[in-house]
Amino acid sequence: MPLETKRLRLRALTPDDLEHLVALHGDREVMTFITGAGEPREVVETQSLPALLRRRTWAIFHMATGGFLGWASLRIQGDEAELGYRLVRAAWGQGYASEAVRAVVGLGFGELGLARIWGQTMAVNSGSRRVMEKAGMAYLRTFHLEWDDPLPGAEHGEVAYALTRADWRAG
Ligand SMILES: CC(C)(COP(=O)(O)OP(=O)(O)OC[C@H]1O[C@@H](n2cnc3c(N)ncnc32)[C@H](O)[C@@H]1OP(=O)(O)O)[C@@H](O)C(=O)NCCC(=O)NCCS
Fold it and tell me: Domain coordinates of the chain in residue numbers?
């Protein structure tokens, strides 16, 4: 299951990645468009890590240094999957998310035989939207959810993107 790209090595996330996730999810800035607050260790241990282990999640490492950069995941339901990703702040702005996501999307349509991959993010999460666009995913729609305690920018709604296997092949 390890995947390699030009600069990255991706392997299956394991329970031993707890400390990586505690640092990543504990960073409030990383969580700006997700929950708006850093996740306490206990939440990572009892909720986030188990949830990621139930999906197909890859831990992403920098090939040259071996440093942990984040994770990318596919939540598979039938022949479709929801894409997710989260990178440590120090890794932002260097094309790593796009590189990792392209590899995961390629594996999803290739080896895993998926028919469609989709994703969603806050409309104001420009970086996340761009990562999906760079993976070939097309904007589908904007929708609005009811939140008890909305994050700043929630008034602009959420956006959904998707890519079919046929369009991936054609691209
Ligand atoms: C969103 C995130 C994954 C982007 O990771 P990244 O490695 O910086 O992304 P890349 O370097 O591959 O950049 C992809 C594109 O997005 C653009 N981009 C990245 N961050 C951006 C930002 N904050 N605002 C605007 N554009 C941004 C880049 O310029 C690049 O586009 P370009 O090639 O046309 O210049 C990363 O910031 C992150 O993990 N954020 C916190 C978690 C999160 O929000 N996850 C998504 C939840 S749905």
Answer: 8-170
As its CATH architecture, domain 8-170 has 3-Layer(aba) Sandwich (3.40)
Run of H or E including 87? strand 80-87
> Would you say the CB of residue 73 lies under 6 angstroms from ligand 1?
no
For 73-125, what is each residue's pLDDT tens digit? 999 999 999 999 999 999 999 999 999 999 999 999 999 999 999 999 999 99
The whole-angstrom separation of Cα 69 and Cα 89 is 9
Query: How many A from CA of 55 to the centre of ligand 1?
Result: 22
Q: Is the CB of 67 under 6 A from ligand 1?
A: no
Q: CB–CB of 24/70 below 8 Å?
A: yes
* H helical segments located in 72-125: 96-109
- Give the pLDDT confidence of 15-74 residue by residue, as tens digits: 999 999 999 999 999 999 999 999 999 999 999 999 999 999 999 999 999 999 999 999
123 ligand 1 Cβ < 6 A: no
Phi/psi at 69 (5° precision): -110, -20
Whether ligand 1 lies within 6 angstroms of the CB of 8 is answered as no
| Span from the CA of 97 to the centroid of ligand 1 (angstroms) | 7
